[in-house]
Amino acid sequence: MAVRLPESPDAFSEAAWDEIRPYYEELVKRPLDRENVEEWLSDWSQLDSLLSEASALASFAYTCDTADPEREAAQLRLGSEIGPKAHQQRSLLQRRLVELDYVRPGLETMVQRFANQSEIFREANVPLFAQLSKLVTEWSKVNGALTVDWNGDEKTPAQLLPYLESADRLERERAFKLRAQAYLLKREVLVRLFDRMYDLRQEVAHNAGFANYRDFAHREKNRFDYTPDDCLRFHAAVEESVLPAIERILERRRHDMRLDRLRPWDTAVDPKGRPQLRPFATADELVSRSAAVLGHVDIDFRGYVNAMADAALLDLENRKAKAPGGYSSSLNFRRMPLIFMNAVGIDDDVRTMLHEAGHAFHTFETSHLALLFQRHPGAEMAEVASMSMELLSAPFIAAKDGGYYTEDEARRSRTELLEGIILFFPHCASVDAMQQWMYTNPEGRDPDARDQMWLELRRRFEGDGVDWSGLDQERIARWYQQPHFFGYPFYYIEYGIAQLGALQVWRNSRRDHKDA
Ligand SMILES: [Zn+2]
Predict the structure, then answer these.
(1) At 331, which CATH number?
(2) Could you say which of 380, 404, 428 is where a domain stops?
(3) Which residue, 379, 404, 429, sits at the end of a domain?
(4) Which of 162, 337, 384, 397 has the smallest CB count inside 10 Å?
(5) Average pLDDT of the chain?
(6) What value of ipTM does the predicted structure carry?
(7) Residues facing residue 513 across a β-bridge
(8) Ligand 1 center to residue 43 CA distance, Å?
């Protein structure tokens, strides 16, 4: 390449856009033909790998401590200033490749995505993406700062989750309401942030020639194989096929708990009154036990977990100032993944760890592919890998395999996993249906109408197995708590689609574990 690329992403971690731009401009201007296209693609892939690794590290550092002004500044520089401008350069490169009309086996999907992305790119959207990225950073900070007072102790909302498994029903109720309260008290702040995101997203869509952000997002996510109408059919299928199973699960729980009616704080506790599952006490225990469990699925997986731990690419325990949720992202230059999550010592954390490990292993297993653009399978298949890992590792979670539980506890955890899969579908349908409605109706801009629609969708998809009477506000709080509405719009139906794929992988594994 005419310009020598830096040797490491560190070169970009403090750089301004003006120091990065020349590398892209060289690729935009370099004469391009069928003779040198592979070299050009390889140089571009290497440049994107350097920059995306610097960005991923800045984002990891920031989400681990949203109260640190230096980390915030780095995140804003890489995410909000440099990110959208690099995106603009990238769309020029994508167009060049599409115009060259070059494709070979192994690059078909890449070329199809490039054509799609360059079609919807508009220069007018570059500053809007920058503003959106800033708002997401601000939203992370608002979330990281949320705390509640629990018997005189300051706790994060996530640290209340273990109390939702308490045998003491009043304690569960108190924890449930306090957690909802944390978000309700910030409703005005979250509404203001969301309204600004909403306006910007609709403007992005209009600039790109779409009627609304729903239609734009569908295209932007390279969803070539299904339409927004297919998503609506998915919602209807959840209502028709999953709801009856949910009602049976909840009725059995109500019966086991000898209650007249289940309240929302009765759904996480063990229905037979056994002690709470406590799979690990420290993040180190979570790592070593997960490495052992996953090593039984495939011997390489143990090494992958240890490699991430050795490289300090695991930040697992919840604490104040951390951004919410869990994710795995790829460091594309060194071809390693990292895992971020908010563990508080409950069974759900095991599931999250095994899920994110599935994503991380996908990164390891695709790292041999030459071009960065070939390595991401698309969100739907990425989630098949992670959701399958939850199921494939389930046989090995007991202590005899180095796992977290006694035999009896392991059985309980597996039951929770399988019931959780069924119970997840209504939530998936609610989140997707909410966004479908919001961005295609003018009332979606009205905060009160949004809250009312959320209640309506919950009633539609969740049925009557849990008695929510008198708890509308607490029920509404749930959508403010869902990171995807703010940070990852329209990333949700993928989980529903992928769960069906993961269940098929699991079915295969019941016949032949190694083969699956
Ligand atoms: Zn995932």
Answers:
(1) 3.40.390
(2) 404
(3) 404
(4) 162
(5) 96
(6) 0.99
(7) none
(8) 30
Gap from CA of 55 to ligand 1 centroid (Å)? 20
Domain assignment of residue 81, given as a range: 10-121
Q: Are residues 298 and 399 in the same domain?
A: yes
Whole-number pLDDT of residue 2: 58
Predicted local distance difference test score (pLDDT) of residue 495: 96
Which residues are found with C-beta within 5 Å of the ion, ligand 1? 383, 386
Distance 30 CA to ligand 1 centre (A): 38
The rounded Å distance from CA 355 to ligand 1 centre is 6
Distance CA 268, CA 276 (A): 10
CA 354 – ligand 1 centroid, Å: 10
Q: What is the mean pLDDT of residues 166-192?
A: 98
Q: Whose CA is closest to 250, among 80, 468, 16?
A: 468
| 379 Cα to the center of ligand 1, angstroms | 8
Among candidate residues 248, 315, 325, 266, the one with its CA nearest the CA of residue 287: 315
In whole angstroms, give the CA distance from residue 89 to residue 96. Answer: 11
**Cβ neighbour number for residue 300 with a 10 Å cutoff:** 12
Q: How far is it, in rounded angstroms, from Cα 8 to Cα 305?
A: 23
| 78 falls within a domain | yes
Distance (angstroms) between ligand 1 centre and the Cα of 153 equals 32
Going through 135-269 in order, the beta strands assigned E by DSSP cover: 148-150, 153-155
| pLDDT tens by residue, 364-415 | 999 999 999 999 989 999 999 999 999 999 999 999 999 999 999 999 999 9
Residue 99 backbone zone (phi > 0: left; psi -120 to 50: alpha; other: beta): alpha
Cα separation, 424 vs 351, whole angstroms: 13
Ligand 1 centroid to Cα of residue 327, in Å, is: 7
Q: Which two tokens stand for residue 331?
A: 């460091």
Counting every residue written for the chain, the total comes to 516
Interval 219-273: pLDDT, tens: 999 999 999 999 999 999 999 999 999 999 999 999 999 999 999 999 999 999 9
Which pLDDT belongs to residue 324? 87
